[in-house]
Amino acid sequence: MRTRIVFKPVEILVVEDSKGDIGLIEEGFEDAKIGNILHIVEDGEEAIAFLRGEGQFSGSPRPDIILLDLNLPKKDGREVLEEVKSDDELKNIPIVVLTTSKAEEDVLRSYNLHANAYITKPVDFDQFLNVVKSIENFWLEIVKLPSK
Fold it and tell me: Do residues 7 and 34 make contact, with C-beta atoms less than 8 angstroms apart?
């Protein structure tokens, strides 16, 4: 008798308002060797609604990891990070801040709010794709993510 192990796809919530960056993130993850499902929301209010399964996001899956931009409309990424990490139901979801900000105060504040990683988006197309692939490699292949 042979046993076949079937892996559940990794659920990734991308919180990003730049259409161009969303396209690069999608392209980077399309090449992934493991199954993943990208859920994309474009502002902080949608992110919180998705995570809580509210409104149009009723029945949304719990993400295994969140890629979070800091500079978002309606509710910025710092507020989302603070809200998620202070919620007992959500706080163990790893959050990777993926943003254009290189400001030391943003880096420090993000880690003080318990971000799991802080990555500055490169401007160059190929470097951006390399960053996305590195995230995929590290967070989805090497790191053991928490069970739900």
Answer: yes
